[in-house]
Amino acid sequence: KVIMALENGQQIRTVSLSSDDDMIDITTTGTITERSIHGEEQGSHWESDDIPGIGQYEDFHTIDWQRDIARDRMRHRYIIKKKQDSICDLIKGAHDAWSGWVCVLFVGLFTGVVAGVIDIGASWMSDLKYGICPQAFWLNREQCCWSSNETTFDNGNCSQWWTWPEVFTLAAALVRMFAPYACGSGIPEIKTILSGFIIRGYLGKWTLIIKSVGIMLAVSAGLSLGKEGPMVHIACCIGNILSYLFPKYGRNEAKKREILSAAAAAGVSVAFGAPIGGVLFSLEEVSYYFPLKTLWRSFFCALVAAFILRSINPFGNEHSVLFYVEYNKPWIFFELVPFVGLGIIGGIVATLFIKANLYWCRYRKVSKLGQYPVTEVLVVAVITAVIAYPNPYTRMNTSQLIFLLFSQCGVSNLDNLCDYNRNFTDVNSAIEIAAAGPRVYKAVWLLLLALIFKLVATIFTFGFKAPCGLFIPSLCLGAIMGRIVGIGMEQLAYNYPHIWLFSGECSTGDDCITPGLYAMVGAAAVLGGVTRMTVSLVVIMFELTGGVRYIVPLMAAAMASKWVGDALGRQGIYDAHIELNGYPFLDSKEEFAHTSLAADVMQPKHNEPLSVITQDSMTVDDVETLLKDTEHNGFPVVVSRESQYLVGFVLRRDLNLAIANAKRTLEGICGQSLVLFTNTAPPQATGPPPLKLKKILDMAPITMTDQTPMETVVDMFRKLGLRQTLVTHNGRLLGVITKKDVLRHVKQMDNEDPNSVLFN
């Protein structure tokens, strides 16, 4: 007998727009939710609290978006109807209406505080490996030297700062012992969770604690990683924990994802000091379901988080990010050519990085290397420290290097990059264009070596078993490339100021080319090529730099990078890691264009038996045997095995809970009791009382015919968030299509014809 595997139960729904909650309103027919709401006159509640656990999900299962939204809609209607009964119901209704805003307020507050602690801790631990401030051990090197009267510092040190040998990181050991889910960036998993998949431990309190401590240790160790990506994971952990304070969100997985979307926006907001970019990042990159109300709440959450971080002032200046700069020089129209060129180079470099990193991560999975995660992290840390130390641009903190590359050379800048033959007789005069000195060319060679080292180090670092982000390393790679190109353009303008390319802008003697701007554009190009972000990337970059006038160069580089990246490889780094880890993620950005039908994908195939439950002829023993012999997550309920006419759908979890609850609370229920999914029992002479389970039956599951095109099926799974749909022919049940079946079919078609199956 061939048994088919079902995902989980589903209600059939009437879909209509609701202006009340800015979401799809789902009306169920004959489901547990509706029967509960209809029975409220008899004192029942909107949920079936008489059977604990009904309506919840097991770990590593896909949620039923439509079912949860329907439950929340019925719950909302129940509260509205009961508002006028008493003062308590009125207060409860007001609390329910504002609970979403209060929840995102708390998420923003806690995210800002945690981000401030991480920023301060990472800065302190980065300097801790060089020494300590004996007068106040909690101060980093810069803050310790503020109170010193010395005007010059040797290698950034002062007499009040004491140095010692470098220390090792404990991040990998903490992750391995306490929170395995705290490793990596976290964004691929957040995207999967927001699409409806459940990974409970990934957003738990231990993951939050270990991720926060681990990222400070990892960044301070000098590894080629950043804390910005993990900040999104940390913010979502905070959102998940706080959502349980509000039952509307804590008990409903679909509603909880609205809070998680707002938390993701807050994470980017505090990571870059870019609240608008955070909202757009959540919308463009990670969120799967983003109604209008979630947009407002995400904006509010990102605003609160950015305000709290600014109040904490972790960097000790007037900015909420470390590499904030401002430029005043306008860009020349011809510079669009090198800007687009940077975008093309960024797309190529990003594609090389993605392919190399995926190759290494696959090797880690299949080799013995994956069995020794702590050893791998320690080896990478030691090799990184040994190779990075001789080069001053790899020895310094990555964020400090980005700040240096973004900066414009001035009187106070003594780095080799600013060794120009200038005569600063008047501090207030405009900076003149000048020939590059010998130290500039030496710095360019060192930057080329740093570029190669950072690229290789990030390939081996991203994905290992420690908290690690990708934003800062990507920005650093692009900033190095951009600065080198900017210096080349600057010297071209100095040597040939009167050619038509520069339109006379450089003939006045002023510095008309800004190498720091090229660094900023290059940074956006590489980050855009790695992540495939466009709109949110541009907004984040100009929020970082305050350079609103440079939106066009950033847009040109971001689009060129994305086009080149898409041409060389279809997936960004996060989507590639989702596929590598086998997460059930159905990308809503892609379209299915193949001529297959539902009958080609459904399980089981034609003329093969289907595992079902009859409405009134199976005993408790029969049902328990079926549950024991199969691993299905749900079963269709039919009139009889002969007719196969569909009655409804019941979840495996609900069956187990209902039978266990009946045996515990109802007298006379035994293995020979009939299990009924109808209102009336069939005539029987004698025997134990029947077990009536109609209240857990979904009497209106979503169905389609066997001739439905798979293009329509895929759209339904994407836009309605389905777990499975039942396939019928002339009203008789034939089989089921689950989300896993759809993903398997899409992957199969993609492998057979990658050019025609999926297109953006």
Automatic annotation (TrEMBL):
Q: How does it sit in the membrane?
A: Multi-pass membrane protein
Q: Which GO terms describe its molecular function?
A: voltage-gated chloride channel activity
Show the Pfam families listed in the entry: CBS, Voltage_CLC
Entry GO CC: early endosome; endosome membrane; Golgi apparatus; plasma membrane; synaptic vesicle
- Domain (CBS) ranges: 602-666, 697-754
TM ranges: 98-120, 208-225, 231-247, 259-283, 332-354, 374-391, 443-464, 470-489
| Gene3D superfamilies cross-referenced by the UniProt entry | 3.10.580.20, 3.90.1280.20, Clc chloride channel
Identification of the protein by name: Chloride channel protein
